[in-house]
Model the fold of this input.
Amino acid sequence: MARRLGGAVFVLWATATFTFVVQLFMPGDRATMIINTQAGNLQSPSAEQLAALNARYGFDDSYLAQYVRYIGDLAQGDLGISYNQHQPVTEIIAAQIGPTIVLTLSALVLAWLISLVVTVLATGRDNAWSRAATGFQIVTAALPPYWIGTIFLVVLSVQLGIFPVEGSNTLVGTILPAFTLAIPLSGFLGQITQDEFARVLDQPFVTSSRTRGIGDLGVRLKHVLRHAVLPAVTLSGWALGALFSGAVLIEVVFSRQGIGGVLVQATNGRDIPLVTGVMLASAAMYIVANLLVDIAYRFIDPRLKSA
Amino acid sequence: MALAGCGGSDGSGGASGPKAAAIAAKEASQPRRGGTIEYGHYQEPPCLVTTWVQTGYLTRQYLEQLITVDDKGKFLPWLADAWEISDDKKTYTFQLKRDVTFSNGEPFDSAAVKANFDNWFSTDPTRRNGYVAFHVEDHIDRIETPDDHTVVFRLKHPHHPFLSALSQYAFGFLAPSVIKKGPEEWCVRPVGTGPFVVEKWNRGSNVVLKRNPSYSSPPGDVENKGPAYVEGINWKFLKDNTARWGSLKSAESDVIYDVPGVNWAEANQRYEILQHVTGGRPSQLALAVDHEPFNDVRVRKAFQYASDRRKAVETVFQGAVPYNGNGALSTSSPEHVEELEDYYGHDPDKANQLLDEAGWTERNGDGTRTKRGKPLTVRIVYGAGSIISGDGAQFLQVVQDQANQVGFDVQLKPITTAEFFAGKGRQPGEYEIQPGYWVARSAEIFQVVWKPDAKVPDGTVIPNANNPSRFQEPEVWKLVRQADRTYDDAKRTALYQEVQRALVEKHAVTVGAYPLTVTLALGDNLTGIRLNASIGEPIFNDAYFVK
Amino acid sequence: MSTLAVDRDEAPLIRLAGLRVSFGGPADAVCDVSFALQPGRALAIVGESGSGKSVTARTLVGLTGGRARVGVDRYEYRGRDVSALHDREWRRLRGKEIGFVTQDALVSLDQLRPVGKEVGEGPRLHGEAGSRAQLRARVVSLLRDVGVPEPELKARQLPHELSGGQRQRALIAAALALDPALLIADEPTTALDVTIQAQVLELLEATRERGKALIIISHDLAVVSRMADDVLVMRYGEVVERGPADAVFGDPQHAYTRKLLDAVPSAHSRGARLSPSSAPRLATASSDDRTHVAERVGGFDGPLLRATGLFKSFRGPDRVSRTVVQDVSFELGVGETLGIVGESGSGKSTTARLVLALERPDAGTVELAGKPWSQLAERERRSRRQDVSVIYQDPLSSFDPRWPIERIVRDSVDKSHIGDGRARVGELLDLVGLERSLRHRRPLELSGGQRQRVAIARAIAVDPAVLVCDEPVSALDVSIQAQVLDLLADLRDELGVSLLFISHDLGVVHHLSDRVLVMKDGIVVEQGLADDVFLRPQHPYTQHLVAAVPRLEVEAPRVAA
Done:
């Protein structure tokens, strides 16, 4: 546990340091940049203006002093004030991360459901449905989410009016974005799970269970599935990270609240405190995701408990 | 000028049944109270009070100015009832409306006006209002408040565009208590005197605006003298074009901003369209005159002749945006010189001839002209996605193709918003062309754009960043200053037109493209919306639902 | 069509006639198999890999598998025609009427579920589970009945927490859970140590004695000879011989049956060839540049290999240190075979690794031809590495599957710097009795016996003085095993190679070894001449081991019941 906590702190520290170093190497003068962004136009700031801003944000100090202050503030949970939004970064992120978490988690759950249903029903059966399912997974794994989202929006929302166009953060409004993110991931997870499923289906213990009178669906659900999901479960921590970055695009398509919009604005506006905040939040999510994967793995594979 | 309902009445395409019927019903209706307008806007600002145009549309709903302007260029009272200009044109005295309060109960008075100006001119960059500063800071000597309802501006010199400037969106007043609290407060909870009050900003989604029930300060061009008819506006940020258009089609929005080009024809057929061509500097290509090849006016003219810009605009925008061939001033500005629109028609022969004359006679293996072994390379550096939209980038590609045919080597250099504002690729010598626009009402923009570089006492030069062409002919600047100080309308207009001719005909430093255009598409139920003559901010005071 | 045991009074429980199974290949996997079986009787189906015995067994419960085409003239269970049952109907029979112990016991339990769940699966599937507590009690009693110690605990544990024998018992308990009238056991003792094997056989015996019918599938003639009333011998999908066990083993009629019986190594076969004279054999004629080991070590008359007081311990994942080899000493002379026997975990493989200098002993030394060996730094040892070579149970895992045979052997030939590369590969293949035409095949395209020959060719390419053989024949069918054992004996006898021969199979060790080392828990409990150790064991553990070995009971045929 202590080691895991140490690892988490290390990841957060590395992320923070990386962000700090990157912003030092971004082009242009930071103070000028802030003034320009705030004005929404290109300015010719006077020396006084720049001096005032440099003093305010401490840009005059040595990089080491800036770094120490920055890490010190972070350690106290102070992510600073957004340059452009003029609000505490923690508040901005706290207000926006909820819908993103809801979206990514529902997408992950959906992706799993789709891939499991397809896998359980189709794997190892030599029929057209099985071949179609495999084809489905190969095709969906390659689809870009942005494209799926736009098609969904045009067909299901605009043309057919089944779903709201504006994916406000309601349950119904979450369905299309969640499917949009889930479909390519389901293809990816499904391919892995199907391979493993087919392999496990031939294992002696499966035959053994059949000799006790279990039905085909029963053996698939009770025995094979648990083994077959393990590789894809391992990848789910990574998948959550991928979903998180996918959410950035999809939130715009479906006009959803979320961290994606914040990140776009923050990056465009070179809003360093906010970019740092979003990066740290992503890193934290990544850590939590991997923790969840570990827990899920132990739950599915009890051998790890006794080891 | 607002081209209201251009789809229906001007007969563009057979206006079909539902649209015509809806417009007829709207015209026959009487104002009713109630309802909340679902408005699908485009960009979300980082803060609810900034000088960015996109914020201007929003601040119009809760912040108000001293005066406004109508589409004939007439200044009308707003928070100021009346004003007076002294004979020497250096003193502007405004009488403020009485009994106006901010929505938090604070009185609106002369101290509030003074507090706002002081805030705008602050050296603290988080408070400073660059837009206001560009337009009036050079001209104001001091601001006096002899009593609660009188504000006196003492100018250093006569400046005719002063009123025009004050009628701009960036001059809206915040309650002094909010100013005191700083941007942390006004960015999310701005308080003004306007017809609507910011109730809640769901960042990333919408701003909930509620009717100001005690509203009493409408501008002179608004019919409804009291609180707005509707209960509020749900101001939604729908950044994705498909979603925004779909939102209108599925009636999830009553009105949307900026119909995407691909849907323009359908929108025109089906919906009532409001369109406003914004004044000031249109989207144009500024040619850098401080180095080769555009330090030679013949090369600049050759570039103008080289491409069929009118056709390019029509092709790319499919009618949603008009052409603006006079790069000096927007077609909607009252001083705009019409004949400059096609001064440089598409004429490759002339372009070739000019380039030959300028000595770019050799060609290299790629067919690019060269001079003393140097290729005729032209870099267009532009802020992709921010200053230049996707459609705008397409326009640049067309220009690139056509210019290359006469021997230019045009290179497109898109840069990100962050880099753009950090000044990447925009230092003198790093580009030959920079596209850009500057929103204003009219020719008052000249003194912002063409102001020569400032020399501070210690000898350093602060370049005027608003002048990417680096063109600083003293005779042109003299004309601008002369015009700004001329109060005779005819004479002043003539001077401004002379400036345009100098910029376009004589010096050819700006290549016109298209003006910034505000477009609103309305559903069948909603009427009474107007676009302001200044920058096309939507005005909802008079808006109501037909049924 | 003669059917077994039809002369008995009792009606057969199961009657099969004319079974044919095809997987779409050119030949049928099973062709025309028929038998009948009464309650309380045991039928053995014996044969080598690919004989169709397991396919026959699975077909008996309708689980032939994917693309198989099954045809049968007649298949009755308790007089009912079951030749055309739907899967749903089969499911009612499986587990309830016919219990099935699948092969590969070590991996036939779901690794992710507690053992008790697997044992209780049958009752649950057939709606006889009762309450949760009842089922739990039943599972515990089933495990107890099959002799699993601490059944309450084991029921909650996962398969990997059980020993191999416990897993096999649990699997049998699962098959017996619903007290089926027929139990089919497919290779129930393979991969088990002899003592465990004996216990499992007793368990099956007891089941039969309770009046159950038993079908036992095995490649191990000794196992079958002890258990079966009747025997079917299968080869290439066909039954080549059938009859009462004593008749088949005592007086085999078919040449194949005789060959199988001859191939079984035992005390009696010592010094004789196991495989028929037609089998490929060591071809010494071509190896003219090869010298007898004795000449190479000329002048040195001590033991070629001497291990003195070897100790080795490892730290487990629980960070507890376990001593796996304790004070092991032995000598191996030129041209001698030293057998090491012991059950899993006895330390015999670790001893092999110490001899190979793949592990460094914690204490003690290994000397080679009187010179230090285990104490050397690897750099100093490298030039003498070729003197000690090795073959393993599973050669496949030590081959690069993409390489053709020629390259695999050539790789070793090049290291040895003996002779011309290509020609020598041919010689080596000749030597181990592999056709030269196989040199372009890849390992996966060879049979198990062929692969082991390649491994031997590779091992002797470097002209070793000592060949360490770690379970070299455990995965092979009996006739192939016979050929490999013959080959090893030839190498020893004609080239003077010393063999360190490790196996859990006492018969194999007895057949080949001059002297034997018996190990248990890392300790040598007994060592001596092979006949002394196996025929007159002194240590109780050795006695226990020897007693547990199922013997081919040919000399004293059972009295037919």
